[in-house]
UniProtKB/TrEMBL annotation:
<protein>
    <recommendedName>
        <fullName>MxaK protein</fullName>
    </recommendedName>
</protein>
<dbReference type="InterPro" id="IPR011990">
    <property type="entry name" value="TPR-like_helical_dom_sf"/>
</dbReference>
Amino acid sequence: MGNRITRINFALALLAAIGAIGTGYEGYQCWKIVGINARLEAGRTIEDEAYPYQRKFASAYLQGKANDYKHAVQSYSQLLEMSPSPAQQASIQYNIGNNLFLSGLQRRPNDDGSLKDEAKYDFSQARIAYEQALRMNPDLQAAKFNLSLLLSAMPANMKPAPKDQSGVELSNLPIGLP
């Protein structure tokens, strides 16, 4: 009987030690996450290599916050290549749409009051991004709201802006001949 109680006590002590180690590890992970959240709230980038997705997302967010919409969209697009979950992809598409929408709003209209081609392109790309976000997550209320805002800001008869084809060669002559 005494030997059995000793084995049970040893097993319980071992379980308690494993639980204490697990609690310590989880506490350390929470401490790291609190530190990352504090850096984000302070508007600083994440320097911890253990969180590459969060690091890139924070960088893209801060670029958009600094009105550097072009680079923010590029950074968000790079995040899509990290193959996150569908919910994360919807969030990324939503943020791409936001940055493109803000970029289009920032552009001044032409002298006749019409939108510049760059603004038309930004608006049409923002619309595509919002629709993509809603395809991935139909319950994303913020994307629905922003899409309705975008559609109300876009002229009804707006045609998409022509895509930039500066890299297209106009003749069959190689470039750079004397």
